[in-house]
Design a protein that fits this description.
Layout: H1 5-23, H2 62-67, H3 160-167, H4 169-182, H5 190-202, H6 207-218, H7 228-243, E1 259-264, H8 271-284, E2 289-292, H9 299-312, E3 315-317, H10 325-338, E4 343-347, H11 355-372, E5 379-385, H12 391-403, E6 407-411, H13 421-429, E7 433-437, E8 445-447, H14 450-458
Parallel strand pairs: 1-4, 1-5, 2-3, 2-4, 5-6, 6-7
Antiparallel strand pairs: 7-8
C-alpha cells in the first residue's frame, strides 16, 4: 500500500506534537509531602482490535520486468516419457517383487593387519643447499652457525698396571735417567759399579738391595760395555725377587666373624681414606662391614669415616671427641656381632709425638678386644706414606713394637720420586704388603703385585 505524501507529512506532525506534550509532563507530585494519590491510567486501547496488515509485497516495477529473463512454465506436451526397459533390470528385487539382501551374508575378505598396512610416507625433504654469501655491495655479511661438535667418546678405562706405571713415573724417570747417563758408552768397571750402587741407594731401594743388584750386574759382564736397557731389565728382575715373598692377599677368617682389622699409622698417612676404600671393596664383594671411629682426638677423622659409612652402607660406631678409644672398640665389637657383620675395621690415633701415650692406648685396645675374641685383632694393618722416604722404615719399627703390625698398605706412590722405599721395607721387615695406592679415587687402591711394581719402577715393559 502506497501512502500519499500529504498523509505522511500529517503523521509526522502529529508525532512531533505528542512528543512535545510529553516533555511538558507535570511531575510536581513527587515534591509534595502528602500521600501520593493512586492514579489509574487508561489502557483500554489494548483491547482494541488491530487491523490486519496489508501485504507488503510490492508489485515488480517496469524496470525489473524489463531485465528479468523470460521463464515460461513447462506444459504436459513437453514431458518426455521413459520406457521401463530403458531403466534396466531391477537387480535388488526378487521374483516376488521384494528386495534381495542376500549379499549381506557373503563373507568379506579378511582385513590387512594394521602393522602390515602401508602407511603413506612423507616425501623426503631434500637437504638445503649451502647458502651463498651476500654480495659486498649489500653491506651485510652472514655469520653462519658453527657446526655441532662431534660427540666425545668416553675415555677407555686404564688398566691398573698402567695407572701404577703412571703413578710411579716420577720414581721411574729419575732412576732410568741416572742409569742411561751412567751406562752410555762406558765399560763396566769398579767405578761404574760404585756409581750404580749410589744411584740405587739414592732411589731409597736400601743398602742391602743396592749391593745385591750390583753384584748381580757384575756377574759375567765386568770389563764389557752394557746397555742401559739391560741394566733396567736386571734391576726389574731383582726388585721382583725382593717383593714377591711379601705380595700376599689379605686373608679373612670368617669362621670367627667378625674378622677384626685394626688400622694403625702416623697421622697423615691416609688411615681413614684407606679404611674407606677397603670398606668399599668388601661391600662390593657382598660382605657386611662395621666401622669404628677410634681416632677420638680428631673430629675430621670421625666425620670422614661417617661419610665413608654412608657411601658404602656400613654402620659407623662413634662417640664424642676425647672418648675412650678402647671402650669404643669394645662397644663396636659387640655391635658388629649383633649386626652379624663379616668384618669390623677400627680406626686409631697416630700421635707419635707422645709415643708412650700411643703405646698405652693401642695396648689397651688389644687387651679389651681379646676379652671378646682371644685372637682379636686378627689383622693389624699399618698405612705408610711413600713421600716420607726413609722415615717410613722407622715408623714400621715403632708400630711393630707397639701394636704387633702384621701387614702393610703403601699410599701416595703417585706423589713422590721415592717409591723405592717399599723395596727397602720389604727387604728389611719382610711384612706382607697387601695394597698400594696411587691416587685419591676409590679404585686407586689395589692389591699389591710384585711384577707390576718392579716393571713400573724400573721402566721396562710388563712382559
Amino acid at each position: 500500500m502506497e501512502l500519499d505524501p500529504a498523509e505522511l507529512e500529517a503523521h509526522r506532525r502529529a508525532a512531533a506534537e505528542d512528543a512535545s506534550e510529553d516533555d511538558d509532563a507535570d511531575f510536581g507530585f513527587l515534591e509534595s509531602d502528602g500521600p501520593i494519590e493512586e492514579t489509574k491510567g487508561d489502557f483500554s486501547f489494548l483491547d482494541e482490535q488491530v487491523a490486519p496488515v496489508e501485504s507488503a509485497t510490492r508489485e515488480p516495477s517496469a524496470a525489473a520486468e524489463a531485465i528479468a529473463p523470460a521463464v515460461e512454465p513447462a506444459s504436459e506436451a513437453d514431458h518426455v516419457g521413459v520406457e521401463p526397459a530403458e531403466l534396466g533390470e531391477e537387480e535388488d528385487l526378487d521374483e516376488g517383487g521384494e528386495a534381495d539382501f542376500s549379499w549381506l551374508d557373503e563373507e568379506l575378505p579378511p582385513e590387512e593387519p594394521e602393522d602390515e598396512r602401508s602407511e603413506p610416507q612423507a616425501p623426503a625433504v631434500p637437504a638445503a643447499p649451502p647458502r651463498a654469501p651476500l654480495p659486498d655491495s649489500t653491506g651485510f655479511r652472514l655469520r653462519e652457525r658453527p657446526p655441532e661438535p662431534a660427540p666425545v667418546a668416553p675415555a677407555p678405562r686404564v688398566s691398573w698396571a698402567e695407572r701404577l706405571r703412571q703413578g710411579l713415573s716420577r720414581s721411574s724417570n729419575q732412576l732410568s735417567g741416572s742409569i742411561t747417563a751412567l751406562f752410555t758408552k762406558r765399560r763396566l768397571d769398579e767405578d761404574t759399579l760404585q756409581d750404580f750402587e749410589d744411584v740405587l741407594i739414592q732411589a731409597d731401594l736400601g743398602v742391602e738391595t743396592a749391593m745385591r743388584i750390583t753384584d748381580r750386574l757384575s756377574e759375567g759382564r765386568f770389563g764389557k760395555e752394557i746397555a742401559g736397557s739391560e741394566v733396567r731389565r736386571i734391576l726389574a728382575e731383582e726388585i721382583e725377587k725382593t717383593l714377591a715373598p711379601v705380595a700376599q692377599p689379605l686373608e679373612l677368617d670368617l669362621e670367627k666373624k667378625p674378622h677384626v682389622i685394626l688400622v694403625v699409622g702416623v697421622n697423615g698417612t691416609g688411615k681413614t681414606t684407606t679404611i674407606g676404600k677397603l670398606t668399599a671393596k668388601l661391600t662390593r664383594a657382598g660382605l657386611k662391614v662395621t666401622l669404628c671411629a677410634g681416632d677420638t682426638f680428631r673430629a675430621a677423622a670421625v666425620e670422614q669415616l661417617k661419610i665413608w659409612g654412608e657411601r658404602t652402607g656400613s654402620e659407623v660406631i662413634a662417640k664424642q671427641i676425647g672418648a675412650d678409644a678402647a671402650g669404643l672398640a669394645f662397644e663396636a665389637y659387640d655391635r658388629a656381632v649383633e649386626n652379624d657383620s663379616d668384618v669390623l675395621i677400627i680406626d686409631t690415633a697416630g700421635r707419635l709425638q707422645n709415643k708412650a701415650e700411643l703405646m698405652a692406648e693401642l695396648e689397651k685396645i688389644n687387651r679389651v678386644l681379646s676379652k671378646r675374641e682371644p685372637d682379636a685383632p686378627h689383622t693389624v694393618l699399618q698405612t705408610l706414606d711413600a713421600t716420607t722416604g726413609q722415615n717410613a722404615l722407622s715408623q714400621v719399627e715403632i708400630f711393630r713394637n707397639v701394636s704387633g703390625v702384621n701387614g702393610l698398605v703403601m699410599t701416595k706412590l703417585d706423589g713422590t720420586a721415592r717409591g723405592g722405599i717399599l723395596v727397602a721395607i720389604a727387604a728389611k721387615h719382610r711384612l706382607p704388603v697387601y695394597f698400594v695406592g696411587v691416587g685419591e679415587g676409590i679404585d686407586d687402591l689395589e692389591p699389591f703385585r710384585a711384577k707390576d711394581f718392579a716393571s713400573a719402577i724400573a721402566g721396562v715393559p710388563l712382559s
